[in-house]
């Protein structure tokens, strides 16, 4: 679950029909605003990840298994399975698992009635049609099949988002298997982005910024924040990508993940938008803060401080330093400007890893001594939140290069002209 959608789920059952109607409202209520109608489909710019790249991921995972004393890793439905195999799957009460050994060929454990459907999906998997598939019938337990495929002994890494019941049953059925955390392998692979992955992330960020700018141009005071979000949904449809945007205004912009309270955009008040889209499974995550009309001097001061804090983070981030140092650099700017100390007004960490999950390893936060490496990717999102007044957050994604860090999109220019460069 994306953290910004957490509040929305509490009202999901009662509001779902209304929300669906509102999501489709822009397309049904008449012609799109010119700025959105002018958007062109960019789907062809997204180049899918190749089988050859997944083969390299297998090899890298096997190297990391050797370094971390694992004989295999087990993947169930979720992002890591998609990353390594191209198979998109959820989890249910029936175990489906993909096991990649340190040596030898990978294999699958799945319900017998799913075997043919699984075979259809082997084109994206290294080893393809030769992948072993161990099947089980509805009255049987699949857990022993995991051990059978591995020869009954060894150390098996369990991907961190594996449901507890899966791991528990595998452990019971295979007493000679040692189960450990596989994050050193999965994160070790996923947090270092390839050129193909970076290209998709740059595209996703570019698309999100283009959508934001078009909707900023089309929107106006008097609209509800839901109207604004609906225009973003319509704009994403025009460009051909799946994405959304939350929108908060006035006092509710001081809540980092917003409020369910109905809101109307007013002249001379802060508007804060957030979220992103995916390009072939790779996320963008951008925030912009702006005002329709004339900002107050206090708004201008806060924007300037947040802008400097964001610049300090990207200027600090580079290979060889600890992740927490980046957070400290941004937080110092905000504290020195009188909006500290600690989490007084800057309520959250300065950034998170990003890739095939909007939030993934590692995190730019105090206490995280993980050493940053080249080709890691992060959000850079300092903010100042003043309860009962307003909040300002600026967020762009950045990639760590050999000699520093670079934002994938230009910093916002000002509260009244947020998209000029």
TrEMBL record:
Alphabetized PROSITE patterns for the sequence: TAT (PS51318)
Keyword flag Glycoprotein: no
Domain Peptidase M24 residue range list: 200-402
Extent of the signal sequence: none
Keywords: Plasmid
Domain Creatinase N-terminal: 57-192
Pfam family, one: Peptidase_M24
Protein name: Peptidase M24
Source organism: Granulicella tundricola (strain ATCC BAA-1859 / DSM 23138 / MP5ACTX9)
Lineage: Bacteria, Pseudomonadati, Acidobacteriota, Terriglobia, Terriglobales
């Amino acid at each position: 679950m994306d953290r910004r959608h957490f509040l929305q789920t509490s009202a999901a059952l009662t509001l779902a029909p209304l929300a669906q109607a509102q999501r489709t409202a822009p397309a049904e209520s008449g012609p799109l605003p010119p700025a959105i109608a002018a958007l062109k489909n960019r789907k062809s710019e997204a180049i899918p990840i190749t089988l050859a790249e997944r083969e390299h991921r297998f090899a890298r995972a096997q190297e990391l298994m050797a370094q971390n004393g694992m004989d295999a890793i087990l993947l169930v439905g979720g992002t890591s399975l998609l990353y390594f195999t191209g198979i998109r799957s959820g989890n249910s009460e029936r175990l489906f698992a993909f096991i990649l050994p340190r040596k030898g060929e990978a294999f699958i454990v799945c319900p017998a009635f799913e075997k043919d459907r699984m075979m259809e999906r082997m084109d994206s998997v290294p080893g393809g049609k030769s992948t072993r598939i161990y099947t089980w019938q509805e009255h049987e337990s699949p857990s022993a099949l995991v051990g059978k495929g591995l020869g009954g002994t060894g150390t098996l890494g369990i991907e961190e988002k594996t449901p507890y019941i899966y791991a528990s049953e595998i452990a019971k059925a295979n007493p000679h298997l040692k189960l450990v955390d596989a994050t050193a392998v999965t994160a070790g692979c996923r947090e270092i982005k390839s050129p193909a992955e970076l290209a998709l992330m740059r595209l996703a960020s570019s698309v999100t910024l283009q959508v934001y700018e078009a909707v900023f141009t089309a929107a106006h005071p008097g609209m509800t924040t839901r109207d604004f979000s609906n225009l973003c949904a319509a704009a994403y449809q025009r460009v051909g990508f799946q994405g959304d945007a939350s929108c908060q205004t006035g006092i509710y912009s001081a809540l980092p993940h917003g409020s369910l309270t109905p809101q109307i955009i007013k002249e001379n008040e802060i508007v804060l938008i957030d979220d992103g889209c995916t390009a072939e499974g790779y996320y963008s995550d951008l925030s912009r803060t702006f005002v329709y009309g004339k900002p107050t001097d206090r708004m201008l001061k806060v924007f300037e401080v947040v802008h400097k804090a964001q610049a300090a983070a990207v200027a600090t981030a580079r290979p060889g330093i600890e992740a927490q140092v980046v957070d400290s650099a941004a937080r110092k700017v905000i504290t020195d400007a009188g909006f500290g100390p600690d989490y007084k007004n800057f309520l959250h960490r300065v950034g998170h890893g990003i890739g095939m999950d909007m939030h993934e390893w590692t995190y730019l936060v105090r206490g995280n001594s993980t050493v940053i490496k080249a080709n890691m990717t992060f959000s850079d999102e300092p903010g100042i939140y003043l309860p009962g007044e307003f909040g300002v957050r600026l967020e762009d994604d950045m990639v760590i290069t050999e000699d520093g860090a670079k934002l994938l999109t230009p910093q916002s220019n000002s509260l009244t002209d947020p998209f000029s460069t």
